[in-house]
Amino acid sequence: MLRLSALGDVLHTLPAVALLREALPATRLGWVVEAPYRELVEMVAPVDAVFSVATKRWRREPLQASTWSAIAEVRRDLVAFAAGQSSVDFQGLIKSALTGSLAGATLRYGFAAPAIRERLATLFINRPVEVDPGLHIVEINASLARAVTGRDLPTPRIDLTSFCADPSGAVELALLRGSVVLNPGAGQRAKMWPTERFGQLARLIRQESGIACIVVWGPGEKMLAEEVSVAGDAFLAPETNLRELAFLLRQARLVVSGDSGPLHLAAALGTNVVGLYGPTSVARNGPWGQLEHCVESPGDMKEMNSISVDMVFEKVKELLN
Fold it and tell me: Is there a domain that residue 1 lies in?
């Protein structure tokens, strides 16, 4: 399996991998993933081996001997596992498709050109699969898995509770149980709702319901979270690793976030979410199982600035009640 990153995309691939496991119980399955998500895949995905890569660091340090040594080591491990076998590219990027080729996979499945993000990736795919691009990405991935197995199995649900059980910071994080969690960060600036509006939302929630808001943050996002905390008189969450974040999200009464990994992680854990969507499509990329809980930018604007505080607060009240 090839789905290197990011968090939300890895989560959206898990059901397809579970489908592969159900259809092919005797087949050895391996997953190539970026290092930050290795523990999640190891604990939750029904695979026999996990291979971690560090493509961002490798691109930053292309001339370092350590980079080429790490790449060579990963390739050796992949060839030993996959040479003469099959690869399934759920990512549709040159780096993911090329990985399947470098691993020596004979049959290299992936999306056909209309559904692929980087068309050059099709050069490394010899079993292209047509999918309906109008489906949610979870179902698109499941369609690819069904084509590989030839079996029309239903898309399974994934239980992530083991991943968030008793992390190192559980005692401190348990004190935040029942809060509304706000996540102002996102992988792309265009997906981020203004921090002052998150702050206004936090104040409204506290005034109307008496429920405290917690602002979570990831690498490089602390200043962003502090802005929301100050503007909304909300608590700033402590620094967390991925398992601790999962624990916190599972304890939350509600999570409000743009299209981001924490939003999809919360939804996968069964926590109610309010997803804020501008440039990306709810129908394709919304929190799986909670698409009706999203607030989209009105009309054709597709900008996060067009989502008002009142629009979000109405959805928050609906779910809190």
Answer: no
Per DSSP, 176 falls in state T
Angle at 251 between CA 316 and CA 170, to 5 degrees: 150
Enclosing domain of residue 189: 163-320
Instruction: For residue 60, give every residue at least 6 positions away whose Cβ sits within 8 Å of its Cβ, in sequence order, or none.
Output: none
- Which letter does DSSP use for residue 291 in this model? G
Contacts of 261 (CB under 8 A, 6+ apart): 6, 7, 8, 11, 187, 218
Provide the whole-model pTM: 0.95
CA 36, 39, 44, 49: dihedral to nearest 10 degrees? 100
**CB–CB of 282/266 below 8 Å?**
no
Whether residue 141 is found in the same domain as residue 215: no
Shared-domain flag, residues 32 and 148: yes
**pLDDT band, very low/low/confident/very high, at 177 (cuts 50, 70, 90):** confident
